[in-house]
Amino acid sequence: MANLGKKILSAFVEVNDDPKKEAEKPAATKQVYTPATPQPAATFTPTTASNSYASTGNSKFAAYFEKLFEEANIPGPDYFEFSKMTEAMQAVPDEQVRYSTAFAGLSVQGLDKQKLLSTAAQYLQMLETDATNFQNTVGTALQEKVHEKKRQMEEKAQRIQQLTQEISTLQNEQLTLQSEIKENEAKIEANTGGYKYESEAMKSRINRDIEKIKRYIQ
C-alpha cells in the first residue's frame, strides 16, 4: 500500500528517505458497470470530506488520491468501483437510485453488501494509518525544514549581534586612536617648534660670543 503522507509531503519539500522501490504490479483487469447514459468519469472523493484548506489546487490532490486508491485497490469489485459509479451517475437526482443502481451493477460481478462495507472500512483504515505516517513525516520535515532553519537563523542573528558589538568596540577604539593621534601630533609639533626655537637661539648666542671673543680677546 502506498505511503500517503510521504508522497504528499515530498511534493512540496525534500524529505530524506530511501525506501526500497516496490516491484511494479500488473494492473488487474476488472469489469466496470456502465450506466445506460454514460457520464464523464469522476475521480474518487470520500463523500464526507470537508477541508478548510480548499483551493484551486484541489484537482492535483484529487488526482493524487485517485492514484493512491487505484494502487491500493484489490481485485474484483469493491467500494472503490462502487464509489466511482455513484459519482459517475451524479446526473441522476435521486441518491437512493444512484446507490441502488451502482450496487445492482456490481452485484452481478460478485459484490455483496458485506463486502462493500468491509472494503469501505479497509480504505478508511488505510487513510487513518497513512495519516499517522503523514503526521510523523510532517514532524520530521518541520524539524529539518523549519525548526532547523529557525535555529540557524537565530544563530546568525546572535552572530550579527556579536559582530555588531565588535564593530561598535572597534569604532570606539578608532575614535580613541584618532584623539590620541591628534594629541600626540600637537605635542610633537609643539616640541619640534620649541626645540627649533631654542636651537636657533643657542646658535645665535654662540655666534655672537664668537664675534665678541674675536673682538675683545687679543
Automatic annotation (TrEMBL):
Native source species:
Niastella vici
Coiled-coil residue windows: 143-187
Task: Return the Low complexity bias intervals.
Answer: 34-49
Keywords from UniProt, A to Z, are:
Coiled coil
Top-level taxon in the UniProt lineage: Bacteria
Please state what the protein is called: Uncharacterized protein
- Disordered: annotated span: 19-49
